[in-house]
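Narrative summary of target 7.
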Amino acid sequence: MDAKKLLNSKERKFYILARMINGEHVSYQKLSDDYFVSRSSIANDIISIKKRLSKDNIPLLFNNSGSYIGGGEIDKQKIIKRVVIDLLGNKEGKQLISLFIDSRLLKTIFKLFHQKLQAWKLEVPENNIGDISISTAILVFRGMNGYQISWKKKDQLDSVLMQFDKYPLVYQLLKTVEESEIYHFNDTEMQYLYYIIIGNGFNFFMNNGQIPAEFKSEVKQLIANVSDSLNIDLTKDSSLLEKLLVHLYQMKLRLESKTTVINPLLQEIKNNYPDLYGVVWYALSEFSENNHLAVSDDEVGFVTLHFQAAVERNKEINRILFVCPNGIGMSSLICAKMKRILPAAALTEVTSKHDLVKKDLSNVSLIISTVKLSEQQVPVVNISPIMTISDMKKIASSYIDVVTKQSVEKKDEHIVINDVGPFLKGNIFFMDEKVTDNIIDVLLKSGTWNDEKSFECYKKSLTKREELQSTYISNGFAIPHGDPKFITKSSIAVAILDKPVNWGNNRVDIIAMLMIKRTDKKIVEPFMNLIMHGIKNKEWFISKMMEVK
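Modeled conformation, tokenized:
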């Protein structure tokens, strides 16, 4: 960097990160001197960088020579990918991309891949092409600069993917880079990119029949676990199973290649479906442990959308009753118009005003009538017998109001401490403790154990899960949990700390220990609902914990 060039805080963070990605160990004093700012400013920069790294579970370490990024070259390329995607979506940030990758190289590779896929008439989504292009361009750029990946993946899938002739489209896609004299891949790089490409477009390059039977069983178990937690049977939803098989196998390939996808809707998903997100996060922790994967929040968000779609399919149709005394012809005309603006299955039957009093309205969400009715137990929309455009707007608006109100009411019903209060009673600890292991012991000892062996086995399984992937969720909350087979009696223990303690790459001040038997998974949804709302409003969460203390 030109020492005479002064950078703003945002730019400085990226310059420091780029230096660390390139292997430099940086000290606060050296950075302070280089960028003409105080050590406290550098300390804030490092905290920001540490938070960025934690998204991909990559540690920021330090020794006598300064702070540095842990992990290998693949981990560093994972960081670069997230940074590049962030910067591409920001006009002000595009000038910083050159710190991490040659933007002209990225454009060239994207164009090559896009043209090849068009020639094959494969309609791969634009974001998938972009993801593949960015990963490939980063590997090429880093390889050109002497940074080589180390890949030690050895399993059944590995041996299959190394048979390049079995996946000619993937092979030909990568060969376009070599044929353009941009870069020549070695076998390790080729294998690594196979994982990334197939992980971004499984249904284009492989078929469902190539998914191992054992993996299919694990996906079915995941669906069963989420179903148990939600108290909704989603196990018969063939569409959910089919889509999750593809998505989760793609995810497995992505995570095994230590790459990731960025979910632009993540915050909206957390805000709109907090309870489901929490349940999926919890269920995926068991799934990820079985597959030795570290699943990011971005991936949890995508899986949540699949389950939300299944939940919507499982909901009862918001049935509509149409009251019309004007004969079959007129009622048929109005029904035809209504079907243009309402779900096909919503309009169940037409009735007269006289017969309305005999109807069971318990499963009716809305009544549409061309005549004035007495007060009803469900909302009524009065329209003209000839159904004007204004009437159509009124019907559509009322139907949306009904659907939205039902959704909100259902969500509010779950935000009650009564569902989980009995499992929390006596297990809320306000602590001034700095040693994480001591906090964990206090929480675990509040549970009920058959014997010392069960206690130790559960603690060991908890530690093993934490080593694979941090159970930090957000805003200072961690939700540690171990193997439920060692649990005798379900309980939940919560530590609320005076000061945050280290938890992996993050800091936490609320630790909720879940000790839940497999048969009690219905507890998970209401508690994760509390957690997700607590993440938004920590004071509210603490007040709820004080209610049951």
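Confidence is low (pLDDT under 50) at residues 411-415.
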